[in-house]
Amino acid sequence: MLTLGIETSCDETSMAVIEDGHKILSNIILSQVIHTEFGGVVPEVASREHMKTITPIYDQALNKAGVTLADIGLIAATMGPGLVGPLLVGLSFAKGLAFAAGIPFIPVNHIEGHLAANILEHAELDRHHLTLIVSGGHTLLVEVREFGEYEILGKTKDDAAGEAFDKVAKLMGLGYPGGAEVDRLARDGNPKFFRFPRAVRKDGYNFSYSGLKTAVSLYLDKLDRESFEAHKADIAASFQEAVVEVLVEKTVRAAVDKNILHVTISGGVAANSRLRKLLADKLKRRQKQLFFPSPVLCTDNAAMIAAAGYYRYEKEGPGEFIVEATPYLKLV
Ligand SMILES: Nc1ncnc2c1ncn2[C@@H]1O[C@H](COP(=O)(O)OP(=O)(O)OP(=O)(O)O)[C@@H](O)[C@H]1O
Ligand SMILES: [Mg+2]
Asked: What is the pTM of this model?
């Protein structure tokens, strides 16, 4: 069965066609560049951009997949969490299309979409696994008993990991969103150059990143221009190490405590090279295996939404047309 996925929760307009929850036929992603001049996403501008591009993106997704609407068996769209205006554009488009064409419709939780990116790409992944979702808005450590059955083990008390990357990138003048740029810069830096604080409470699995962000800000304030330029890469690497070490420590400990063999990471920060390497190494030492999505499936995309929609549909059948865009939708 073919699923058409639609994602418009923030500043990416994306549509994808996937086959049976595992094969991607098309995954068109348009990132709105207009927001870079504002240093962050402007919700009203994002909604209007989605309105302009949604129909051409729909045409491209079907054309690239070599199918027509008549071939589509399910339409899945993000209903939340995200920005209400952007969500409304994609969700209304999906409902209208599904209703007019008589195709089953399923609303999707964007966070479940991130998690589903791994199931989509890794057929060998155990149904029961541990997942770390690290995105621009979320930092969640979740035990997945099977798709749709979750226990949240830990979450951030304040900033999300991606948010910390973006804020520090901004402080360092690296543009927005800056996570990938910090990652690139850090490759030439010394992670031991400066020891930024790690918020690690030994007992729980929760995270906290606002203190780290403040520590970087205070550190940069004291630095003169010359030293900053000379040690930019070292500072990026030292900050990144502080974020990654805590994510890795808690994830490995949870995998050991819960005796879970397979671990996945997803969301934009799952593209981070240091996180991938350190977590894979530490898990391997414990005879555990790490899975992560290819970079394009880490940040927002409709293929993961189509996949999550397909797995939900398999479990529960179609959704209701009455669902509304839900900005603060939770995973559980
Ligand atoms: N290589 C990287 N290293 C670190 N962070 C990265 C990297 N690539 C992307 N990011 C970060 O990932 C985030 C974007 O991820 P994503 O698209 O999943 O988040 P979002 O959709 O904005 O938030 P959410 O999914 O929580 O609603 C940004 O914060 C970005 O800086
Ligand atoms: Mg996202």
From this structure: 0.96
